[in-house]
Design brief:
Elements (H helix, E strand, L loop, with lengths): L1 H10 L12 E15 L11 E14 L3 E11 L6 H4 E15 L4 E10 L17 E3 L7 E3 L1 E12 L2 E12 L21 E3 L2 E4 L5 E4 L3 E2 L5 E12 L2 E11 L4 E5 L2 E6 L7 E5 L2 E8 L1 E13 L2 E12 L10 E14 L4 E14 L17 E12 L2 E10 L5 E12 L2 E11 L14 E9 L1
Parallel strand pairs: 11-18, 12-19, 13-19
Antiparallel strand pairs: 1-2, 1-28, 2-3, 3-4, 4-5, 5-8, 6-7, 8-9, 9-14, 10-11, 14-15, 15-20, 16-19, 17-18, 20-21, 21-22, 22-23, 23-24, 24-25, 25-26, 26-27, 27-28
Length: 451
């Protein structure tokens, strides 16, 4: 905090002829009441088909000419959830102090200290560059970013039509991303195929149950995370480069399987074949990665193009549960048709991911995180009037099959009141990242009030 005070003093106006404008204070609140209904019931121990969820948020800020103080606590209540840790929680994604100084007519510097979340990258849906903030994956289709204690320094340079931004981030202690709980519908409940790990072939049960073991943190993955972003805007193009060294956003998972040995083949592959028992142990593995990537955004012939690429290397390089190297790329194209009062936006998204596995790494991964190994998404966003919008997306897994339909609509009743509804439909074999969740088709409706 001493560094921030010094920063503010250095940036204070030097002349009494132009006194600073008075600080602006803003206070707000948001309440979101939501109903979810799933099409299929699972075992009694698993989350029920219907749930009532209440989300809340408070926000407050004090903004001056060269400083900003912000606090945003959030809360969640889901009383019917079968996992105790997912029934309720509160968090502070943002709670920081920020100061800004002008180093020259064209160069400024901003320093931010406190709890914060970060968003990197330019694409929607699949964004391999957005790796700084940990997530809460209780609902993997709607993950929440977790604030972490951090310091961020941004240098901005603007000269005519050229702008440059250099951003450095340091997180002394990263938060742990959380996986779905042991009774969650979002753990695979219908596993098809086989699991191959450590040269052992497991045939999983038709209806598995789960329990979590103590997590393992490799190589101080949660300590001293840092990143660097350099972006430029020139001639209508946005170009950026990214570097991050820290904990992987999604922890790897090791399995603990028991069962009956049905075949032994010493020296062969696999050496053992086992019919697994229903109970499967999961252990989160927090590991350190190094990511290097880039993004490009530019308009061309009334189309807007977005591109991203990232190469992520595991720092251990010797774990059978963690890919050694992941190469990812995504291309997105968008076009907006304008009418008298309405707009229609068409979006196409195409993805590619290549995993270089360590020897013995699990190759059967029925997880939504592997949906975009080879994927495509086509969508339409329709806004006939300013207060109403609707969108629909179809996501295809072009590598192993399966698809998902996602529909959403929002209507603004009053300035502070919105009602919304949506649906998600999964299809595919249970051996695919999408098809394994085919009993999780759901309808969502709710009302959001902002004050």
């Amino acid at each position: 905090m001493k560094f921030l005070l010094l920063f503010l003093l250095l940036g204070a106006p030097a002349s009494a002829d132009s006194p600073p404008a008075p600080a602006k204070i803003r206070v707000g609140a948001m309440v979101d009441a939501q109903k979810q209904y799933f099409s299929d019931g699972l075992s009694p121990a698993v989350d029920p088909r219907a749930s009532d969820i209440l989300n809340g948020e408070l926000s407050g800020s004090v903004k001056g000419e060269n400083f900003l103080l912000k606090l945003r606590p959030t809360g969640h209540w889901d009383p019917l959830n079968k996992t105790r840790g997912e029934r309720s929680w509160w968090d502070v994604p943002e709670g920081y102090a920020q100061g800004k100084i002008a180093l020259s007519e064209s160069v400024s510097a901003t320093l931010r200290l406190g709890m914060d979340t970060f968003t990197w990258g330019v694409t929607d849906g699949f964004n391999p560059l957005d790796v700084v903030s940990a997530r809460r994956y209780n609902d993997p289709l709607r993950p929440e970013k977790l604030g972490a204690p951090s310091s961020t320094l941004r240098l901005n340079w603007i000269y005519e039509n050229l702008s440059l931004l250099l951003e450095g981030i340091y997180i002394p202690k990263q938060r742990e991303s959380t996986l779905p709980g042991d009774n969650s519908r979002w753990l695979p409940r219908e596993i098809g195929g086989e699991i191959f790990t450590d040269n052992i072939l497991f045939r999983p049960p038709a209806s598995p149950t789960y329990y979590f073991r103590e997590p393992i943190v490799y190589d101080d993955a949660l300590q001293n995370n840092y990143g660097l972003r350099l972006s430029s805007t020139f001639l209508g193009m946005d170009l950026a480069g990214y570097y991050f060294d820290g904990a992987a956003t999604t922890p790897a998972t090791s399995y603990r399987l028991t069962g009956t040995v049905t075949k032994i083949n010493l020296g062969g592959s696999p050496e053992f074949e086992i019919n697994a028992n229903p109970a499967i142990g999961l252990r989160p593995l927090y590991h350190r990665v190094r990511m290097i990537g880039g993004s490009l955004v530019f308009p061309l012939a009334e189309l807007l193009f977005r591109f991203e690429g990232a190469v992520t290397n595991d720092r251990r390089k010797n774990s059978s549960s963690i890919p050694e190297k992941i190469t990812e790329a995504v291309a997105e194209v968008e076009h907006t048709f304008s009418f008298e009062k309405a707009t229609l936006t068409a979006i196409g998204l195409f993805t590619y991911a290549d995993y270089r596995e360590n020897s013995g790494t699990t190759t059967h991964t029925p997880s939504l995180t592997r949906l975009f190994d080879r994927g495509a998404a086509l969508g339409l966003r329709w806004q006939p009037v300013p207060v109403w919008s609707a969108e629909g997306f179809v996501v295809f897994d072009t590598k192993v099959g399966g698809n998902m339909l996602k529909l959403d609509t929002t209507f603004q009743v009053k300035d502070a009141v919105k009602i919304y509804a949506g649906a998600e439909i999964f299809s595919g074999k249970t051996t695919t990242p999408i098809g394994v969740y085919r009993k999780n088709d759901r309808v969502i409706s709710g009302v959001r009030i902002a004050l």
